[in-house]
Amino acid sequence: MATLHAARIISSGNEILQGLYPDTNAQRFSRILLESGFRVISHAVAPDDASELRGILTHALGGCSLVVVNGGLGPTEDDVNREVIAQVTGRSLVFDERSATMMRKRFHARGIEMPERNLKQAYVPEGAIILHNHWGTAAGFLVPGSAEQPAVIALPGPPSECVPMLKRAIEKHFEELFPLRSIRYIHTLHLAMIPESTINERVAHLFNADPDSEVTLLAGRGHIRMRVISSAGDLEAARLRALRIAEEASSLIGADYIFAEGPENASLDETVLKIMQANGSTLSLAESCTGGWIAKRLTDFAGSSATLLAGFVTYSNESKTRELGVPAELIERCGAVSEEVVRAMAEGARRVSGSDYSVAVSGVAGPGGGSTEKPVGTVWFAVSGPEATHSLKLRFPGDRETVRMWSVNQSLDMLRRVLTGAPVTPEIPALIPPKPR
Amino acid sequence: MATLHAARIISSGNEILQGLYPDTNAQRFSRILLESGFRVISHAVAPDDASELRGILTHALGGCSLVVVNGGLGPTEDDVNREVIAQVTGRSLVFDERSATMMRKRFHARGIEMPERNLKQAYVPEGAIILHNHWGTAAGFLVPGSAEQPAVIALPGPPSECVPMLKRAIEKHFEELFPLRSIRYIHTLHLAMIPESTINERVAHLFNADPDSEVTLLAGRGHIRMRVISSAGDLEAARLRALRIAEEASSLIGADYIFAEGPENASLDETVLKIMQANGSTLSLAESCTGGWIAKRLTDFAGSSATLLAGFVTYSNESKTRELGVPAELIERCGAVSEEVVRAMAEGARRVSGSDYSVAVSGVAGPGGGSTEKPVGTVWFAVSGPEATHSLKLRFPGDRETVRMWSVNQSLDMLRRVLTGAPVTPEIPALIPPKPR
User: Fold this and answer.
1) pLDDT tens digits for B251-305?
2) CA B178, CA B68: separation in Å to the nearest integer?
């Protein structure tokens, strides 16, 4: 079994230290390094200050094989990273002609003469491998490690530059620099509308079953990612190990909860859209408490106009009647949040737009508007299709945004279940089972 | 002038190191500490590992007055923070009876007997101030500093617990522990639909004008926050200093670009909604390329149903005709992305819903669908009101999501301008001025 090299990440940025945004570069690098067979053992954020950075970097050189530093490679006086890294790794800075030429070309292409001070960006520690920047100005570099010292990679701060530069550096140089890396395979199961506790109950034993695999749950509101990371000496062995665990999890939890698997990124909206595009079927939406959010999610994707014929945000009772033809009398008698009205909304949207399928949602998102019979979090869903109209009531915990997000995911998942022939009422009842009326 | 104490933040969490999410606790703490007169000089993320944490914490004790640590206070073996902090600050752990009682009560209230191992959470370093947890189980603590050593605060990881606990600790103990803190006042200007470069041109001199004030820009797509942080010996002096800079910025940039000011958080959706609620006026939406996103943003707020009478997601040409009465011939002749059609959409939405105002958007969000005459990023906007219908074309840079987000903010800002009588075509032309047709 091959080694897992330890790595550390350092980001430079006063804005992060002021709380303007979180350190998302560290997050991106962590994922990339994880997939490349590293164990990330610390993150640090340093200010634009040479002595602070020197302290943090010196400390970071201990106990690891790789330090990735980002930011601080610009042309201003605040940009101290190249000097500090050269100093701490005991190297002098030398001028790199090719970097200077690339920078000059980039400026010329924009019709600007390169300011003299930018030449500072063409200096790198002696003996370092230069990481050319095809996405921006500042070149990065890689100082190879030794028995006493880890390798140090310096990258510019903008994610559109440092992310592809790190990936390319790994592809080009890591095979040689870190020959004993273990290979990791990541397989992700995407689960819809299931409580985290239910997953834990059903597959608890999988979390520690295999010393060479790590199973993590990342819970969202209606979308849980279960990530299996397996290590082995070669990719095929790692892949088989991860797939074995994923298959066992799938059969224990119930395959109908899994709406996508494999890649890290998947979403219910894209899944539903792809099914409908493949079938050539069309959709309309009648949204009350979700207020356009389902439509927004589906139109995030180019080409969704062929599928989504129309969306109605019928937040008021009048618009339910006017736009969807829901009888005012029905709303008066049953209330806007009721099985009768949500079915009439779905059927109305389908009739008005001429779509094959429709989804309707009506609920109490809160914080106001709840009652004993229909407390905050009560939401009715309906999916209408060529064969039938299905309806379902759930009650969600949490604040307005949480209830709305659960509702969007439930709507999309209910549609997915109808489209794929899965049970519309999942075997595991609700997240918070509604009290019987 | 009072001192700015330096502070460091350490978060514990393997999930952050695996790249599952960024360190948002550090972001929250940074803001809170900044407002309380601290300069945050580093962030670090440590794994659930005693020896790593010991190294990071020992290093963090240098060069600052305060270290805030979060996470790792749970009952399991992985939770090593209380032991490591006691060790590094040279104190032994002692049992705190009140913490134990509070924990027992919390378990009893949920009808569960407290597991024995949870008692671990009632131990704190000798001489530490206990920070009781009214929002969860684990108590935190504050080890006061000395001439040789900074103060160390330990807090649990969940944001719903550690954020109020830190705020309370600051209120209760900092006056005494950090008597020389300077007072800071933060005033934020929220600017709509203006390029960052224009702000820089107009107010560049303000960024370094006052040594006791810091001016930062945080740019979003259509919403730029300009944050002024001023320090002084007392709050009123700090406030006046910040307001003076904000006023100068406002008059140089143009007051009509500022849609909110004062607090850190403000949004165009909420601003527009409040104006309409105050006027008692109503709204309808006709969204093409924004696909429901404007409706979603407005319905994020409870009570928006009284204002938003109806939203139409008319992504297809047919639905523009069917739902909004846009003549098919007009779409055929001018194209869906045209001044004629966007005006007809706005007027149709207003007519159909009976609202006082309406907003319509139609554009090419990309990546496909562009042409020489109407390249990707071209978006037409219309606002229709009792007096007139206004229309405007802009062209936005970026990918599909970016174009859509710019478009949502432009729609809301155009409505705000109509509602407040500001010029609908801002003096500063477009972000990317459209080429003349």
Assistant:
1) 999 999 999 999 988 999 999 999 999 999 999 999 999 999 999 999 999 989 8
2) 14
Asked whether the beta carbons of A68 and A166 are under 8 A apart, the reply is: yes
The CATH fold of domain A183-262: Alpha-Beta Plaits (3.30.70)
Reported ipTM exceeds the 0.85 cut: no
- Nearest residue in chain A measured CA to CA from B293: A296
Measured between beta carbons, which residues in chain B are less than 8 angstroms from residue A365? 302
Whether residues A291 and B295 touch (CB distance < 8 A) is answered with yes
> A144 in contact with B at a CB cutoff of 8 Å?
no
- Rounded Cα–Cα distance for residues A303 and A280 (Å): 12
CA distances in angstroms from A434 to A222, A345, A382, A437, listed in the order given: 17, 22, 16, 8
Beta bridge partners of B432: B395
Q: What is the CA radius of gyration of chain B?
A: 27
Q: Where are the domains of chain A?
A: 5-177, 183-262, 268-420
User: Between B19, B26, B296, which is nearest A30 by CB?
Assistant: B19
- Max Cα–Cα distance, chain B, nearest Å: 83
> Which alpha helices (H) appear in B230-338, and where do they start and end?
235-253, 268-279, 293-299, 317-324, 328-334
The closest of A329, A331, A245 to A288, measured between CA atoms, is A331
Query: Which residues of A are less than 8 Å from B59 in CB distance?
Result: 55-56, 59
Is B34 within 8 Å of B95 (Cβ atoms)? no
- The superfamily in CATH containing domain A268-420 is CinA-like (3.90.950.20)
Best residue of A269, A299, A403 to probe chain B, by most B CBs closer than 10 Å: A299
Residue of B nearest to A219 (CA): B20
Q: Do A27 and B31 touch (CB under 8 A)?
A: no
Judging contacts by C-beta atoms under 8 Å, the chain B residues touching residue A17 are: 30, 40-43
The answer to whether the CB of B216 falls within 8 A of the CB of B207 is no
- CATH architecture of the domain formed by A5-177: 3-Layer(aba) Sandwich (3.40)
Name the residue among B130, B131, B105 with its Cα closest to residue B118. B105
Query: Do the Cβ atoms of A43 and B41 come within 8 Å?
Result: no
Determine the distance in angstroms separating the CA of A182 from the nearest CA of chain B, rounded to an integer.
16
Å between B410 CA and nearest CA of chain A: 17
Tens of pLDDT, residues A10-60: 999 888 998 988 999 999 999 999 888 899 999 999 998 999 999 999 999
Tell me the H-state helices in A12-49: 14-17, 24-35
